UniProtKB/TrEMBL annotation, chain A:
Coiled-coil blocks: 348-375
Organism expressing this protein natively: Cohnella rhizosphaerae
InterPro entries reported for this sequence: AfsR-DnrI-RedD_regulator (IPR051677), BTAD (IPR005158), CheY-like_superfamily (IPR011006), OmpR/PhoB-type_DNA-bd (IPR001867), PPR_rpt (IPR002885), Sig_transdc_resp-reg_C-effctor (IPR016032), Sig_transdc_resp-reg_receiver (IPR001789), TPR-like_helical_dom_sf (IPR011990)
Protein's UniProt keywords contain Nucleus: no
GO molecular function, one term: DNA binding
Alphabetized UniProt keyword annotations: Coiled coil, DNA-binding, Phosphoprotein, Transcription, Transcription regulation, Two-component regulatory system
Protein name: Response regulator
From TrEMBL, chain B:
Domain Histidine kinase: from-to ranges: 119-218
Catalytic activity: ATP + protein L-histidine = ADP + protein N-phospho-L-histidine
Signal sequence region: none
Gene3D superfamilies: Histidine kinase-like ATPase, C-terminal domain (3.30.565.10)
A GO cellular component entry from the record: membrane
Keywords attached to this entry: ATP-binding, Kinase, Nucleotide-binding, Transferase, Two-component regulatory system
Descriptive protein name: histidine kinase
EC number: 2.7.13.3
Molecular function terms from GO: ATP binding; phosphorelay sensor kinase activity
The organism's taxonomic lineage, starting at the top: Bacteria, Bacillati, Bacillota, Bacilli, Bacillales
């Protein structure tokens, strides 16, 4: 016998469903709720095998209930019930075992009960202690998981390949949650940031779809419940905590603490930076993070050139200066550093070439080199002649 | 030449059917019908006589919709109010004591003619988007009163209400060339009729009040 909980804000609908389920002889209804909030509490208390959730309920609708259950590592199967078009439901199929359309048809209901029976039997045979195994799986990310946000956005697991995004918004949602890892993002904030021009209700549907895409795609990579939903807020699961972006930010913070006088530590940090955050995307919500990381990498490279200059290690100073130029091709200070480095290593023709390159670049902006740069260049030339 | 005329007529007929269908669909929303049938189905097992009554009410609702001449620019207020009553009866059965509806309609206006399908969609919105979304339910007040040469329709609910953004979106769709149903459709026809706009007052957790003024025709 399967135990079931029913949730619908219409009592006639509850009565009919209970009656028809009773007639199947396979289902025992152990609870009835009039709204989604009650349903959450009752499912936690009664732990039914299956919950039949009406989609249109006040307070918390059936989709939100299912989403909440999905992130609570709960064993209750979900079946949606709705008078709406089936296409409106299909986007949420991932969160549910099945869906039923109102008015109910007995044949269709029997098929659903069959599916529930099989799912319950399968689960019972698979996991004698479902709670403990899923807890372990949730804490340990799969071996070789890599989350890359600097440069191109990429998620990969060794042996399972790269995660393939179904839609660009799915990718953007992931990027948003990954950059803000550690804070739980309210649904309305996500709607405003990712779908600013979309109507509220439509945007909500899009968000739901993206969340369920993400969950499904991560499940295929061996990770359950990648997206957590709680109190109308979204966040990524702890197993997705690590990303190259967060590593870089942490390393940069570490530098600030030690004063940034250790060239090795600086090198390690700049090597974590494999490109501009979300390089190929146009995420306006990320403007601040992009600016901060770009400013950090420039400051670190500049600091590196200074350290190498003090150590008279001109080879490394040139390498760091070149990298700095790649980040900021209009930065006069970078050209000055590079000129000093080439002069220090005795490559005076390179000094001239760097100067020319700078003039060309500054010319694009129709500005002239500052006096400071000019006098440095003159100084270096005089030193060469003398 | 004759072929071209025939083709043109055929196209016109097709367009007319399409607009007629769109019109019907805007009135008989599938989910409304499905929910009504689901409710009646349930009553068949528990309260046969009530199921019969409700079938009669649903038939009446459908008859008004089907029989109305949708090209008519005005309709007896009496007919509009009948449609509202049928709709409300069905919804009250569905939502039980979570829905209360009060109607304050000036009986002297019943034989006047107004723009058709204005009141029922507003009441429907108040129930579906206002009261039904609230845990404890709520009530809808419909008032139809004469204001000079106009009739003022006020539909007020104490449901979930709307945030500013939602009100703005509603007004935006109403202002645009939307062929949407419900509110947008009413706003469009109203603008066409006398250039006026519906007034929306709403606050989250407080409720929504929509006020529409229609010119009345006496005949």
């Amino acid at each position: 016998m399967i135990t079931a909980l029913l949730a619908d804000d219409e009592s006639h609908a509850l009565s009919l469903l209970e009656l028809l389920l009773h007639q199947t002889g396979d289902v025992k209804v152990i609870g009835r709720c009039g709204n989604g909030i009650e349903a959450i509490a009752e499912i936690a208390r009664l732990k039914p095998d299956v919950a039949f959730l009406d989609i249109e309920m006040p307070g918390m609708n059936g989709l939100e209930v299912a989403e909440r259950l999905g992130s609570a590592a709960c064993d209750t199967q979900v079946v949606f019930v709705t008078a709406y078009d089936r296409y409106a439901v299909s986007a949420f199929e991932n969160d549910a075992l099945d869906y039923l359309l109102k008015p109910l048809e007995v044949d269709r209901l029997n098929r659903t009960v069959g599916r529930v029976k099989r799912a319950v039997a399968r689960r019972k045979s698979e996991s004698p202690e479902p709670a403990s195994t899923s807890a372990i799986a949730a804490d340990n990310p799969p071996a070789g998981l890599q989350v890359q946000l600097l440069g191109e956005i990429q998620v990969s697991v060794e042996g399972k390949g790269r995660l393939k995004w179904r839609t660009s918004k799915e990718k953007e949602l992931f990027a948003y949650l990954a950059v803000h890892y550690g804070s739980r993002i309210h649904r309305d904030v996500l709607l405003d940031e990712l779908w600013p021009d979309e109507h509220y209700q439509k945007a909500k549907v899009y968000l739901h779809t993206c969340v369920s895409y993400l969950r499904r795609d991560f499940r295929q990579m061996g990770m359950e419940d990648a997206v957590i939903y709680e109190d109308e807020k979204y966040s990524l699961a702890p197993q997705l905590e690590r990303s190259d972006y967060r590593e870089f930010v942490a390393a940069a913070a570490g530098l600030l603490q030690t004063g940034g006088n250790n060239a090795e530590q600086l090198e390690r940090t700049v090597n974590l930076y494999s490109g501009r955050l979300f390089r190929s995307e146009d995420y306006q919500w990320a403007d601040d993070e992009i600016r901060h990381t770009e400013a950090a990498i420039e400051a670190q490279l500049l600091r590196l050139t200074q350290l190498y200059e003090e150590q008279r290690d001109y080879g490394r100073m040139i390498a760091a200066g070149r990298r700095l130029l790649q980040h900021s091709p209009y930065n006069e200070e970078a050209y000055r550093t590079l000129m000093k480095a080439y002069a220090g290593s005795g490559k005076h023709d390179e000094v001239y070439r760097v100067y020319e390159e700078m003039e060309r670049r500054l010319d694009e902006l129709q500005i002239q080199a500052s006096d400071m740069t000019l006098s440095l260049y003159e100084g270096l030339r005089v030193r060469k002649r003398g | 030449m004759r072929i071209r005329t025939q083709l043109a007529m055929k196209r016109l007929a097709k367009e007319a059917t399409a607009s007629e269908m769109a019109f019907l669909q805007s009135q008989i929303k599938p989910h409304f019908l499905y929910n009504a049938l689901g409710t009646i189905m349930s009553l068949c097992y528990t309260d046969g006589p009530r199921a019969g009554e409700l079938l009669a009410v649903l038939s009446k609702y459908l008859r008004i919709i089907f029989h109305e001449d949708h090209k008519e620019e005005s309709v007896l207020l009496y007919k509009e109010i009948e449609l509202v009553r049928a709709y409300v009866d069905i919804e009250k059965e569905r939502f039980g004591n979570r829905l209360a509806v009060e109607m304050d309609v000036d009986e002297r206006l019943m034989s006047f003619k107004v723009m058709p399908l204005t009141i029922q969609p507003l009441v429907e919105n108040a129930i579906r988007h206002g009261v039904a979304k609230k845990l404890s339910g709520g009530r809808v007040l419909l008032s139809v009163q004469r204001r000079g040469s106009e009739v003022e329709i006020v539909v007020e609910d104490n449901g979930v209400g709307m945030a500013e953004r939602q009100v703005r979106e509603l007004m935006d769709t109403a202002g645009g060339e939307s062929d949407g149903v419900g509110f947008a459709n009413i706003a469009k026809r109203l603008a066409h009729l006398n250039g006026s706009r519906p007034l929306i007052e709403s606050a989250p957790d407080v409720g929504t009040r929509i006020t529409v003024r229609l010119p009345i025709k006496d005949d």
